[in-house]
TrEMBL record:
<feature type="signal peptide">
    <location>
        <begin position="1"/>
        <end position="20"/>
    </location>
</feature>
<protein>
    <recommendedName>
        <fullName>Lipoprotein</fullName>
    </recommendedName>
</protein>
<keyword id="KW-0732">Signal</keyword>
């Protein structure tokens, strides 16, 4: 599946990003647009992609799965990340697939830019219409 190959590549980048010291002047990648869908078929595919993407980006299996919400287990090693995805209605048949990677550590500075880069990676994997 194209998602798994792309997911593995992005996961490797995210993992290496956590190890590398970033110079203070280096900027982050521009934010990727939040994925949307506007048909039953498109939304079913995006939701399936979101399930795979959030697990790949965070590196953990899903703990909670509903028709409108996904949440991974918290990583048991640093950085302590958790992934969450919501399917939010925008009206009509249109939905936004809002994924986010959060730092679950008591000291959020230990996660650095990983929540931003992880969320960005999720958005890139799931994509927009």
């Amino acid at each position: 599946m194209r998602i798994l190959g792309l997911s593995a590549s992005i996961l490797a980048i995210v993992a290496l990003n956590g190890c590398a010291q970033r110079p203070p002047t280096q900027s982050l990648a521009p934010p990727q647009p939040t994925p949307t869908c506007s048909s039953e078929v498109s939304c079913a595919q995006k939701w399936a992609d979101a399930r795979e993407a959030i697990q790949s980006v965070v590196g953990m299996r899903l703990r909670t799965t509903t028709d409108t919400y996904l949440e991974t287990y918290v990583r048991n090693r640093m950085p302590f990340l958790v992934g969450k995805v919501e399917k939010v209605p925008l009206g009509g048949n249109k939905y936004e697939i809002r994924g986010r990677v959060e730092c679950a550590d008591r000291n959020p500075s230990l996660c650095g830019n990983l929540p931003y880069t992880g969320t960005n990676a999720f958005n890139a994997i799931v994509g927009t219409e």
